[in-house]
Amino acid sequence: MKTTSSSKSWVDNSLYPFENKYLRLEAGNMHYVDEGQGEIILFVHGTPTWSFLYRNFIKELSKNYRCIAIDHLGFGLSEKPDSIPGTPEWHSNNLSEFIEKLDLQKITLVVHDFGGPIGLAAGIKHSKRINKVVLFNSWLWETKHEKEALKIDKIINSWLGKFLYLNMNYSPKVLLKKGFTDKNNLPKEVHKQYIQPFPDKKSRIPLLNLAKALVGSSDWYQKQWEQLDQLSDKNWLMLWGVNDDFITTKYLKKWQDRLTEAKTLEFECGHFIQEEKTSESIAAIDDFIGN
Predict the structure, then answer these.
(1) Which GO terms describe its molecular function (predicted)?
(2) Which domains does the chain carry?
(3) What's the burial of 237, exposed, middle or buried (CB within 10 Å: 0-12/13-18/19+)?
(4) DSSP label of 251
(5) pLDDT of 8
(6) Tell me, what DSSP letter sits at residue 174?
(7) Is residue 89 a contact partner of residue 27, using CB atoms and an 8 Å limit?
């Protein structure tokens, strides 16, 4: 079921010094890292990132916990199957299968960006396996009435959007950088690790598919939101970058209105708190799980 493999040549092992593991799922080979012992922390990334986003979290938290971080199929070091749906629903089903096959229990679920709906939907399905939830900037409700989402959706579904995503590798090259308040927090050697998984047009299709799902999966997000009671009695920690231009504090307010007992920490940074406020968010998670 589990296999190990040497990393691809572009991976900077000084930044990402982990054993690479693979799990055969129905849809393809999923890459993941599994470091440390103890209570499980399951890290779920969004787009255009991969488990590399959580590298420093794994290095530090694996001293006391079992840290598992997946790469969605089509991302990072996971297989890039042909003709995949690539929707959040599909990714969430893959994550559910992963959780079942490894029989993960008492999970602290850590989610971000598209990893929010992907991970939380899997968590709703397996609520008895979830102990705590850590939420970075994300959402879990319908998007088809969000003006900003509709603007993005119009571009993504145009010839220009398709060209930018598939020909120019626009998501990791440009959009990722826009998610930072301080561009110094994205040095070239780190940025390269987000660009390299998508070397050609075919490899970039999963990025385009998720982008199209921002509004395309609106009804599915809302369905998960309506089932959130399956997880709302868990302990929640919300770590929020208040300078995020898209997933703004308006989204945070909606979470807070729904999860009135959740603890919230706000950071003066953009969308990628993991890169801009690394030590602060690691410490917050460590404290959250330990108490």
Answers:
(1) hydrolase activity
(2) 2-143+219-290 (3.40.50.1820)
(3) buried
(4) H
(5) 83
(6) I
(7) no
DSSP annotation of 198 reads -
Tokens of 64: 């006391």
Least confident of 1-5, 61-65, 123-127: 1-5
In sign, the C-alpha dihedral spanning 247, 251, 256, 258 is negative
What is the reported pLDDT for 7? Answer: 55
Q: What percent of the chain has pLDDT over 70?
A: 98
> How far, in Å, CA of 104 to CA of 195, rounded?
31
Q: What SS3 class is residue 60?
A: helix
- pLDDT, one tens digit per residue, over 5-15 is 445 899 999 99
**Whether residue 4 has pLDDT greater than 80:** no
Whole-number Å distance between alpha carbons of 67 and 39 = 8
Instruction: Give CA 40 to chain center in angstroms.
Output: 17
Residues 134, 110: contact at Cβ < 8 Å?
yes
Instruction: Report residue 84 as tokens.
Output: 């995949």
Nearest C-alpha neighbor of 112 from the set 219, 241, 17, 265: 241
Q: Rg of the chain over CA atoms, in angstroms?
A: 17
Beta partners for residue 287, in sequence order: none
pLDDT digits (tens, 9 = 90+) for 35-56: 999 999 999 999 999 999 999 9
pLDDT at 19: 97
Statement: the pTM of the whole predicted model exceeds 0.85: yes
Give residue 79's identity as a one-letter amino acid code. E
User: 124, 146, 145: which is closest to 133 by C-alpha?
Assistant: 124
DSSP state of 153: H
